[in-house]
Structure formats: C-alpha cells, structure tokens
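Appendix B, Record 12. Input sequence as logged:
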Amino acid sequence: MQPNPESAEQASRRNRRVVAGCLSALFVMGAVTAASPLLYRLFCQATGYGGTTQRAEGNLQYVLDRTITVRFDSNVAPNLAWKFEPVVSTIDVKIGETALAFFRATNLSDKPLTGQAAFNVTPETFGAYFNKIECFCFKEQTLQPGQSVEMPVTFFIDAKMLEDRDTAPLSLVTLSYVFFPLAHAADATLPSAPPANTGG
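Logged structural output:
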C-alpha cells in the first residue's frame, strides 16, 4: 500500500513544531538558570529575605521614642589574612534615627589583599527594615601590608517594623559581616594560624 504523501507532510510539520517547542523551552530554562542568582539577589534585597538589609539613598523618617540595640558581629574567611572587628560591639539607636558605626580591618600579611564583605541581619525578618545609606560592604576593600583602616556604615531602622507583628516586639538586632578574599587578590597566609573569628 502506497503511503499517503499528505499524512507524511503533516507528520513532518508536527515533528518540526515539537522540536521547535522543545528548543524554545530549553532556551527559556537556560535563561532563567543564568539569571537566577541576580533574580534571587534582587528578591532578597526587595523583601529582606534571609536577613538581607535594604539600601537607601537617604533618611526622611521621623525619629520615634523607641530604642533598638544593634549588635555588631564580624568574621573573616580562613583564607584572608585580615583582622576585622567592630570599634564598638553594640549601639542603641532610636527607630528612624540615622546612626553611624565603624569597623576596623587590618591586613596581617606582607602582601596587598583585597576583600569584600557579605552581610545580613538577625533575626532575618528584620532585614526588610534595616536600611543602609552608606557601607564599606558596597564595594571591595584593598589593604596594603600591615595597613589598618576604620570603615563606616551609616544606617537607620524603618518605623514600618512596628507594623509587622514579627518585628514589632524586637529590641535587639545583630548586623553581621564576613570578609571574603576576592579571586584577583594576591594569596597570603599568616605565619601561624589564620585569624579567629571576632565577634562583637
């Protein structure tokens, strides 16, 4: 029996559509996968998820007569030969008040080293209300051999925290930093053990 040419052509068109659909789906999945770190970071910044703090251009808030204690925690990755610590371990700030704190970093090696700080706040639900105006963590930091610098962070706590039942009763928040070496930075090790984590 002779095959029907029209049926073969229809089957061929269906196959091409299926292949095109599969290739389109693969392209979309690949694009989503490639963009997912950026999308995740934007999501965290917008929602405070995982204790991600917010970034603000300035502070136009009213200062309320309610005080929050901000505790500072500092850590250094084992392969970065720095000492890193808060100048003061805690400060009390009023909700809506612009506050300034300093951290001190020292390069303990005999080479220039570049690092950048990752950060978060705990409790994590506080991330949506902890606003940084300026922070050393916004850009990489390079220290020369033996150099010690004080690095500022300017921040305020959004009064909207009082409208959130998870954050309204809180009176203590911890701002944590971990300094990591950047890939292009020179490798250096301490003469003895790497610096222990320094908590504040």
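The chain has a mean pLDDT of 78.
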